From TrEMBL:
GO biological process, one term: methylation
Keyword hit for Transferase: yes
Xref: Pfam families: LCM (PF04072)
GO molecular function: methyltransferase activity
Source domain of life: Bacteria
Protein's name according to its UniProt entry: S-adenosyl-L-methionine-dependent methyltransferase
EC code: 2.1.1.-
Function: Exhibits S-adenosyl-L-methionine-dependent methyltransferase activity.
Keywords from the UniProt entry: Membrane, Methyltransferase, S-adenosyl-L-methionine, Transferase, Transmembrane, Transmembrane helix
Transmembrane annotation, as ranges: 17-37
Protein family per UniProt: Belongs to the UPF0677 family.
């Protein structure tokens, strides 16, 4: 599933100035679109679907329309989201896309691959590249592809036709009901994907997966994106141990927070905790931020039977400035 740029990104300062000037001039339209968008979401109410699952989909939708990461499935799926007003979305996104077409400038959040240091505001954008790169690297060498906490992930629908890998998506029943209806309405074929409903904190998801046709003896790529921070430690360790119990050489790719976002008194993290709590998905878990946080992560993985093979620390990792998260890849060490 290799990705390539499909648009020329102009980095000249004058292009950036022109882009943001045009966006400023059209800001009344963007504001109206945003108000319509949020108003419809509030009026529609909660559908039982994870709100945090919609953010990554919107980011992939934006990158597709800026021409930096092709994802036709994300482009279609956004329009089918529950409570998304088409007019509001067009008003909110249209001016920015027009400014891009006139100037050639792409905002940093939607560049692919992501460039430079990763701040908390750009975590979702940067992790898309990290996860895509992992899929490109490991998918040719596995027999199964499992997306844990899949939400509205669209990677399963972008695989080349005839890919000899069986694909599973694991998530809550309500999220899967809504997603499957969205896929149908968007005209996206999901017949090659096996949907497995399970709650990581309540169910034995591996037993559910096995009952659906998953073979623990076959090497597998597990994707676990944007999930760990919303689970308790017991569920995290249980999930890692279950992955470690599968075939030797199976790989899990995941992102994580440290304890910094859960404890920091900085305004950004206080607002972040309040917003996720209001959405019914409070932050629960973080890797010990005592530096070096990479070692704290490696210790957790070893205790669960996994070996850390690739990792990217997010934020400074010193005595005075603690890392706030990271991206990681770990491998199952179980003997064949």
């Amino acid at each position: 599933m290799p990705m390539k740029l499909v648009a020329t990104i102009t980095d000249r300062p004058v292009s950036g100035v022109a882009y943001y000037l045009l966006c400023t001039l059209m800001s009344p339209l963007i504001l109206i679109g945003y108000i319509v968008f949020v108003g419809k979401a509030i009026a529609t109410g909660r559908s039982g679907v994870s709100r945090t699952a919609q953010g990554p989909l919107t980011t992939r939708f934006s990158a597709h329309n800026f021409g930096t990461r092709q994802d036709w499935a994300a482009d279609r799926l956004v329009w089918a989201l529950p409570g998304v007003p088409r007019r509001g979305l067009r008003l909110a996104a249209g001016p920015m896309l027009l400014a891009h077409r006139l100037t050639g400038y792409v905002p940093r959040a939607f560049r692919y691959p992501f460039e430079g240091d990763i701040s908390p505001q750009y975590e979702v954008s940067a992790r898309i590249w990290f996860f895509d790169a992992a899929v490109d690297r490991y998918l040719p060498h596995v027999a199964q592809f499992v997306i844990l906490g899949a939400g509205f992930d669209t990677r399963a629908y972008r695989l080349p036709s005839g890919t000899p890998v069986r694909v599973f998506e694991v998530d809550s029943l309500q999220t899967q009901i809504v997603k499957r209806e969205m896929l149908k309405n968007a005209g996206i074929d999901s017949s090659e994907v096996t949907f497995v409903p399970a709650d990581f904190e309540k169910d034995d998801w591996l037993s559910c997966l096995t009952a659906a046709g998953f073979d623990p003896a076959k090497r597998t790529l597990f994707l676990w994106e944007g999930v760990t921070m919303y689970l308790d430690r017991e569920a995290i360790e249980d999930t890692l141990r279950k992955i470690a119990s599968t075939a030797h050489g199976s790989v899990v790719v995941f992102d994580y927070f440290t304890t910094e976002p859960l404890e920091s008194r900085a305004l950004y993290w206080r607002c972040g905790r309040a917003s996720t709590k209001a959405a019914g998905e409070p932050l629960k878990f973080g890797i010990d931020s005592t530096p070096p946080s990479r070692e704290r992560l490696a210790e957790l993985l070893r205790s669960c039977g996994l070996s850390l093979s690739d990792q990217r620390t997010l934020g400074q990792d010193t005595r005075t400035r603690r890392a706030w998260g990271g991206f990681a890849t770990a491998t199952a060490q179980k003997s064949s």
